[in-house]
Design brief:
mainly beta, seven-stranded mixed beta sheet, 11 strands, about 5% helix
């Protein structure tokens, strides 16, 4: 059983930045972020798959060019750098991890492909 520990959420003004971190207690091949705003359906944000030097990243269209996902192999940790934040980014952000090497938007954005989930961290962007 892999545990995910998230950190980095908070309150920021529109146009500001936040960095989320998610540390896994064991090895996984894909890690990513989903979010759910109040009264909204959950949505995929970004994810990264890695294995033997092969890295694949994917982003939701709504965050492309503003968010960057990266990872630290040695620490089994993934980061989400969020810049130019907008009020619409306000949500609870959940870290997720899969034992599969997910490739392609259809698969990597499918929450059913993920085995482990974090508790969530609140991100609030004020206008």
């Amino acid at each position: 059983q892999v545990q995910l520990i998230e950190s980095g959420g908070g309150l920021v003004q529109a146009g500001g930045s936040l960095r989320l971190s998610c540390a896994a207690s064991g090895r996984t091949f894909t890690m990513g972020w989903f979010r759910q705003g109040q009264g909204k359906e959950g949505e995929f944000v970004a994810a990264v798959s890695w294995s033997a030097g092969n890295i694949y990243t994917s982003y939701a269209d709504s965050v492309k060019g503003r968010f960057t996902i990266s990872r630290d192999n040695a620490k089994n940790t993934v980061f989400l750098q969020m810049n130019s934040l907008e009020p619409e980014d306000t949500a609870v952000y959940y870290c997720a991890a899969s034992q599969l090497w997910l490739y392609g938007t259809t698969h990597i954005s499918n929450r059913d492909k993920y085995d482990y989930w974090g508790q969530g961290t609140q991100v609030t962007v004020s206008s």
